[in-house]
Amino acid sequence: MMKKTFLSVLSALAIVGAVSFTSTSVEASGGVAIPQQKWSWTGPFGTFDRAALRRGLQVYTEVCSGCHSLNLMSYRNLADIGFSEDEIKAIAADYEVEDGPDDEGEMFFREAMPADKFVSPFANEKAARASNNGAMPPDLSLMIKARKDGANYVHALLNGYEEEAPEGVELNEGMSYNHYFPGNQIAMAPPVEDDYVEYEDGTPATQQQITSDIVTFLAWAAEPELEERKKLGLKVMIFLGLITFMLYGLKRKIWAKLH
């Protein structure tokens, strides 16, 4: 009886775990169903695709970083996804950060170092709004966690643009029509299209590939500890299973004369 109960508990935990790691279908504003994608990191044993992460960083650097910040990430964090120390130094060196004061009390600019946060495209919020018709480009550090089913939503959003709004819909000045954005009018112009970037690893840069790669990178940026957390969870479940069987065996031995 004890064994059956324990197996039932394990089955229930497995079901709960599977449900918690499975993307559910959600709807954007207006009732438009968001297409569900298959992501390598979902599920209790899922991991991030390292090649996709590298491509995603390239997309962020060449496309997204002109408007969007990544304020919670440091360049040295890239070591966790396979970048070497020299590669990280080279990536950081492409940017300048304000530092100081120096011996004369003046602020100065220097090359970014691995310990620095990703350099923001604008000095402050007012500068960001002035460059984007009053709209504030959101920071992307936690974008995938900002809403339920964030990975599928962002992927759908990036692929949800139309060249023209549907008949009867009047767009405000400077706005684009997007199926999945709340209200369908978005200030960000279509960010990518086929061959918008040239991947360093030779992967064909279709729009679907580009959007999948940037979503993968942003998912990692939002939860860089995800893989370690899953490994720890698996170890804990194995330990609990072993200790339960040991305690059950001990109980049987202690109470053997009464059975």
Tell me what the structure shows.
Helix 1 packs antiparallel against helix 7, helix 2 crosses helix 6 and helix 5 packs antiparallel against helix 6. The longest helix has 29 residues. The protein is built from seven helices and five strands. A three-stranded antiparallel beta sheet has the order 3-4-5, with no helix packed on it. By secondary structure, it is mainly alpha-helical. It is globular, with a radius of gyration of 24 Å. The two termini are 13 Å apart.
In a few lines, what is going on in this structure?
The protein is mainly α and 259 residues long. It has helices at 2-20, 50-62, 85-93, 125-130, 150-158, 207-222, 226-254, and strands spanning 96-99, 108-111, 161-162, 176-178, 185-186. The protein contains seven helices and five strands.
Question: What percent strand?
Answer: 5-15%
Average pLDDT: 87
Total of DSSP H or I helical runs spanning 4+ residues: 7
Q: What profile does the largest beta sheet have?
A: 3 strands, antiparallel
Q: Which blocks of ≥5 consecutive residues have pLDDT under 50?
A: 1-25
CATH topology of the largest domain: Cytochrome Bc1 Complex, Chain D, domain 2
Q: How many domains, as an integer?
A: 2
Strand arrangement across the biggest beta sheet: 3-4-5
Terminal Cα separation, in Å? 13 Å
Structural class: mainly alpha
Query: Share of helix among residues?
Result: 25-40%
Q: What overall form do the CA principal axes indicate?
A: globular
| CATH homology superfamily of the largest domain | Cytochrome c-like domain
Q: What is the CATH first-level class name of the largest domain?
A: Mainly Alpha
Q: Which second-level CATH architecture of the largest domain applies?
A: Orthogonal Bundle
Give the tally of β-strands. Answer: 5
